[in-house]
Design brief:
Helices cover 67% and strands 1% of the residues. It has a two-stranded antiparallel sheet. It has 16 helices and two strands. With 405 residues, the chain is an all-alpha fold. The protein folds into two domains: 197 residues, no CATH class; 154 residues, no CATH class.
Length: 405
C-alpha cells in the first residue's frame, strides 16, 4: 500500500503544479501552417537519416488548436471525464508512449512466466497448483521499500521538468501575443497618422501605408520560418516574393537572420511615412519591443531544458518502471498466477511515461502553437488598416500640420 500511495503522490504533485492537459476534441478548429507542417530538429534528423517520422512528430501539427465559444462550452461539459476515459487508447500521449509501455509490459510478462515456471509453480484454469518446470530457486522479486524511498525524488524530477516545459510553452505563446499586438499597432498608427496635411498625394500616402502594413506581417512570417522547420521553406519564399519588392524579397530570403532582415525592412518602410518626430518615436518603440520579443523567442527555440537533466530524468524513470514489476509480484499474489501484475505495470507506466511525454512535447512549443493562424490574422488586420484609411476623404482628416504633442 505504501508503494501505491507513493505513486499517487506523483499524480498529486503534477495536478497541483501544472495546468491540466485535456485532449482536444475532434471538432476543435485546427490551424495548419500555411500548407506545410512545421517540423522540429529531431524530425529533420530522422528525415536526413531515412527514418520514418514518429507519431509524436507527425501529430504535432494537429495540436495547434484555437478555441472558440462552442469549443469552450464543450471543454467544460460535465461528461468530459467519460469522454476522456473512453478515448484513452486514441490519445496522442498513449500513442506516443506505446514502445515504452510495451517494454514494461514485456518485462512484467517475463517476470510472471519466470516465477511461475522456474520458482513458485503455476495454476491451471481449474486452480490446481503445478510444480515449476525446473525449480531454479531464483525468484525475480524485489521488496517495495526501494521504490517507496525513491519515488519522492522521481516525483520532484518529473514535476520540475514538466513545470519548466509548460512555462516554455506559456512564454512562447506570450511572445507571439506581444508581437501580434505590436505589429497591429504599427499598422494602426501608420494608417491613422498619415494625414493629407503631411502628404497631400493620396496615392503615395496609401502606397506607403500598405508597405508598412505588409512589412509588419512579413516580419512575423520571417519569424515563423525562423523557429519552424525546413518544410515551410517553399511557402515562405513564395509568400515573400509575392508581397515584397523583388530586390528586397531576394535579400530577405538570402539573409542569415531573416527576422532581423524583416524588421529592418519594416523600419525602412516606416521611415518613408510622413510622420512628426514624436509620432515616429512612438512607432519605433513598437519596433524595439518587437526586436526584444524576437530575441526571447529565439532563446526559447535554441535553448532546451539542460540535456543532462532531461537524460537523467529519463533514465531514472525508465529504470524505475522497468524494475517496478519485481516489486508488484507479491502484492498481486492473490490473482491467478500473479497475472494482474502485467496490466498494473502497463497502466502505471502509461501514466508516468505520459507525463514525461507531455514535457517532451511542450519543451519546443512553436510547432504546436497556432502560429500560422496568428500570422494570417495580423495579415488580414493590416490589410484592413489600409482600407480604413481609404474610407475617409482628405477633408475628414486633421488639416493642422503641427505636432499634436
Amino acid at each position: 500500500m505504501r508503494l501505491f500511495s507513493a505513486l499517487l503522490s506523483i499524480v498529486a504533485l503534477q495536478t497541483s503544479s501544472v495546468t491540466a492537459f485535456a485532449p482536444a476534441s475532434k471538432q476543435t478548429s485546427v490551424v495548419s501552417a500555411f500548407s506545410s507542417p512545421i517540423t522540429t530538429t529531431a524530425l529533420q534528423a530522422d528525415a536526413g537519416m531515412g527514418r520514418k517520422p514518429t507519431y509524436g512528430e507527425e501529430s504535432r501539427k494537429f495540436r495547434r488548436t484555437v478555441f472558440g465559444h462552442d469549443d469552450w462550452v464543450k471543454h467544460r461539459r460535465p461528461d468530459r471525464f467519460v469522454k476522456n476515459l473512453s478515448t484513452i487508447f486514441d490519445s496522442g500521449v498513449t500513442q506516443g508512449t506505446r514502445f515504452e509501455v510495451s517494454c514494461v509490459a514485456g518485462v512484467a510478462t517475463f517476470i510472471a512466466l519466470w516465477n511461475s515456471f522456474f520458482y513458485e509453480g503455476f495454476r491451471d484454469l481449474d486452480g490446481v497448483l503445478h510444480d515449476p518446470i525446473v525449480n531454479l530457486n531464483a525468484p525475480l522479486v524485489l521488496p517495495a521499500m526501494p521504490f517507496t524511498v525513491s519515488v519522492s525524488a522521481l516525483a520532484l524530477l518529473i514535476t520540475f521538468r514538466t513545470n519548466n516545459a509548460y512555462q516554455r510553452w506559456f512564454e512562447a505563446r506570450r511572445c507571439w501575443g506581444i508581437i501580434n499586438t505590436e505589429c497591429r499597432n504599427v499598422a494602426r498608427m501608420a494608417g491613422a497618422w498619415c494625414v493629407p496635411s503631411k502628404e497631400p498625394n493620396r496615392a503615395k500616402r496609401v502606397y506607403d501605408i500598405r508597405r508598412v502594413s505588409t512589412a509588419s506581417w512579413i516580419f512575423m512570417r520571417c519569424l515563423q520560418r525562423h523557429v519552424g522547420g525546413p518544410d515551410d521553406e517553399a511557402d515562405f519564399q513564395r509568400t515573400v516574393r509575392e508581397w515584397v519588392p523583388p530586390e528586397e524579397a531576394e535579400a530577405m530570403i538570402a539573409a542569415p537572420h531573416r527576422p532581423m532582415r524583416g524588421l529592418y525592412y519594416l523600419s525602412r518602410c516606416i521611415e518613408r511615412l510622413p510622420l512628426t518626430e514624436r509620432q515616429r518615436i512612438e512607432v519605433d518603440k513598437s519596433c524595439v519591443i518587437i526586436g526584444d520579443i524576437c530575441g526571447a523567442a529565439e532563446r526559447i527555440y535554441g535553448t532546451p531544458i539542460p540535456l543532462m537533466y532531461t537524460r537523467h530524468t529519463s533514465r531514472f524513470l525508465s529504470i524505475w518502471l522497468l524494475l517496478l514489476p519485481l516489486a508488484l509480484w507479491e502484492p498481486f499474489g492473490k490473482s491467478w498466477n500473479h497475472w494482474e501484475v502485467i496490466p498494473a505495470s502497463a497502466l502505471i507506466s502509461l501514466f508516468l511515461f505520459g507525463i514525461d511525454e507531455l514535457s517532451i512535447q511542450l519543451e519546443e512549443p512553436f510547432s504546436i502553437l497556432p502560429v500560422a493562424g496568428i500570422v494570417n490574422g495580423v495579415k488580414n488586420l493590416c490589410e484592413n488598416a489600409v482600407e480604413w484609411h481609404q474610407e475617409y476623404s482628405d477633408e475628414e482628416y486633421p488639416q493642422s500640420v503641427e505636432d499634436p504633442w
